[in-house]
Write a structure and sequence with these properties.
The complex is a heterodimer of chains A (395) and B (159).
Chain A (H helix, E strand, L loop, with lengths): L6 H4 L5 H10 L5 E2 L11 H12 L12 H15 L9 E4 L1 H13 L5 E6 L5 H7 L3 E6 L10 H7 L4 E6 L12 H13 L3 E5 L25 E6 L12 E4 L2 H14 L5 H13 L1 H24 L12 E2 L10 H12 L1 E2 L1 E2 L11 E4 L4 H26 L1
Parallel strand pairs in A: 1-10, 3-4, 3-5, 5-6, 6-7
Antiparallel strand pairs in A: 2-8, 7-8, 9-12, 11-12
Chain B lengths: L1 H9 L5 H8 L3 H13 L20 E9 L8 H8 L4 E6 L6 E7 L2 H12 L5 E8 L5 E2 L2 E2 L14
Antiparallel strand pairs in B: 1-3, 1-4, 2-3, 5-6
Helix pairs in contact in B: 2-3
The chains are: A alpha/beta (395), B alpha+beta (159).
Chain lengths: 395, 159
């Protein structure tokens, strides 16, 4: 008997990152700038709190929505840092990472054929998650010359009567793009005019630099009631393996998301939830320390890339740079593959993040500075050799 | 300025041009800033952080709690600086609590350390009492941990 796979799953292409990962895995001594998670271990006070919770035998299920104590901490944290008030009992759901929360929100919102707009280049899971929820993914390109932020007029062009939701991710993985509040307000106005729900993935919001303050789209008048605010502990608190994310949204939507969550997941792990309480209540100093470190690495990597002749914008958020590699004459994939094979440095080809990514590669600076230094040296050699190669060819 | 101090505390030998890159400054600006910190006496010197578990030496170190009688003029300062002047004394702090001075002493061997306490320190008039604790093992020194964290195995490429 041959097993047939559901059409909408079969048609989802394999992740471009996955193929690349397998090649990198098979090689030794590779310095990877391809990693989308902090290189820091979770700050000790957070790990220690998790150990204490384990010692007390806190190993059971929690409420489907998450520990009430954690939801209060989330509510306080969001109020303090984003100036948005959510009711801990009815407007917050703790999920297994932001990815799960996105899936829940889409499944709760979409009827088959509903269109969901998202900006590209973007995190790899958005389009497949929309498809898996029987929606239709509708990308909007962002441009390097705009710093990859989203233009309201570009958004407006792709809206149809079937448009149901807009997914935002600022600061953006992979481009490090951020949005000026005035530009974000224009996006908000478009969403209100066309009655779009906004799924705002703000996972990198603490990691903004030069003192730039992150603004959530949910703060604009008329937006909180149509926004699913999505955040988690993975990036800023270096807690990827704890798998704690959360969604804040109007109570009826949280209730609908909870139905899916309770039947498919039940609850996020209590160990992660206990750690998250400590992180949100007392982690500000640790976050600030890691942010300072990221900012210095960012300064280093941006100047090194520009010096070697790869045009690189200085990202104002996230821990990624997205340099342009077209000056080398190679495609993103060839550049990444040859850099890996010839110099053992892994970067991720831009097209892995969708349209608009060609001509770029993503380099993560969530890697210790000594590694970044070696990687930049090897990359500079590589770019130099490519230049000499092309000079020879043209002679 | 604080960012430069942070970097120097982590690695005082970091090349100044690298520091400049990390802080988005020019190398000259970094050099001027450090020279000023030195001239202002904010930076008094640079020292290596030693792993005493690996450095085979007979040297002993002790933490000594010292109770002293403060003087009418000058309080603890004169007596504290008198004690601090001994080359065996590595650090000397006035502290709150059950005793007055906390001093860190390093001596070539146990005999020398004992002699310092009984012959030098305890014989000073203003010193009422001492309690000496010898260092047995070091776990962390000046912010540097001896027991390094196991490097977590991250996947080599992740979205």
């Amino acid at each position: 008997m041959s097993i047939t796979i559901a059409d909408h799953i079969r048609d989802i292409p394999r992740s471009g990152i996955r193929d690349f990962f397998e090649i990198v895995q098979s090689m030794d001594d590779v310095i990877s700038l391809g990693i989308g998670e902090p290189d820091f271990a979770t700050p000790w006070h957070i790990r220690e709190a998790a150990i204490y919770a384990l010692e007390r035998g806190r190993t059971g299920y929690t409420s489907n929505l998450g520990l009430p104590r954690l939801r209060r901490s989330i509510s306080d944290y969001i109020n303090k840092h984003f100036a948005i008030r959510y009711e801990p009992l009815s407007e917050i759901l703790v999920s297994v990472g932001v990815s799960e929360a996105i899936d829940l929100a889409l499944r709760a919102l979409l009827n088959a054929g509903d269109e969901v707009i998202y900006h590209e280049p973007c995190y790899v899971s958005y389009a497949p998650t929309i498809t898996m929820a029987h929606g239709v993914p509708v990308p909007v390109r962002t441009r390097a010359e705009d710093g990859f932020s989203l233009r309201a007029e570009d958004l407006e062009k792709v809206i149809t009567p079937r448009s149901r939701a807009l997914m935002l991710n600022f600061p953006t993985n992979p481009t490090g793009a951020t949005m000026e509040p005035a530009e974000l307000e224009k996006i908000a106005a478009v969403c209100i005019r066309h009655n779009l729900v906004v799924l705002s993935d703000e996972i990198y919001s603490e990691l903004t630099y030069e003192g730039a303050k992150h603004t959530s789209i949910a703060v604009f008048p008329g937006m909180k009631e149509r926004t699913v605010f999505l955040h988690g502990l993975s990036k800023a608190f270096a807690m990827t393996g704890c798998r704690i994310g959360f969604a804040c949204a109007p109570a009826p939507l949280i209730e609908a998301m909870m139905k899916i969550h309770q039947y498919s997941i039940l609850c996020a792990s209590i160990m992660g939830q206990d750690a998250a309480i400590e992180a949100l209540d007392r982690g500000e100093h640790s976050v600030a320390q890691m942010r300072r470190e990221y900012e210095m690495r960012r300064n280093f990597i941006v100047s090194a890339l520009n010096e070697m002749g790869l045009e690189c914008r200085c990202p104002r958020g996230s821990f990624y740079v997205f340099p342009k590699i077209t000056s080398t004459g190679l495609s993103s994939r060839d550049f990444s593959m040859r850099l890996l094979q010839e110099k053992k440095v892994a970067v991720v080809p831009g097209p892995a993040f969708g349209g608009g990514g060609e001509g770029h590669v993503r380099c993560s600076f969530a890697t210790a500075l000594p590694q970044i230094k070696i990687a930049m040296q090897r990359m500079a050699e590589f770019v130099g050799e490519l230049k000499r190669e092309s000079a020879m060819v043209s002679q | 300025m604080d960012a430069i101090i942070d970097l120097l505390q982590k690695n005082a030998l970091m090349p100044r041009d690298e520091m400049a890159r990390l802080l988005n400054m020019t190398t000259a600006d970094v050099e001027v800033a450090i020279a000023k910190l030195e001239a202002d006496g904010i930076i008094l010197g640079y020292q290596p952080v030693l792993n005493r578990e690996k450095w085979h030496t007979d040297k002993v170190t002790a933490v000594i709690e010292v109770k002293i009688t403060p003087e009418r003029d000058g309080g603890f300062d004169r007596i504290a600086s008198r004690i601090a002047r001994f080359p065996e004394v590595q650090s000397c702090y006035l502290v709150s609590g059950g005793y007055d001075l906390l001093i860190l002493v390093e001596a070539p061997n146990l005999r020398a350390a004992a002699a310092f306490v009984s012959e030098r320190l305890s014989t000073i008039d203003a010193v009422q009492s001492t309690a000496t604790h010898f260092r047995l093992k070091t776990y962390k020194e000046n912010g540097t941990s001896y027991t390094f964290e196991a490097t977590s195995e991250r996947l080599s490429v992740t979205p």
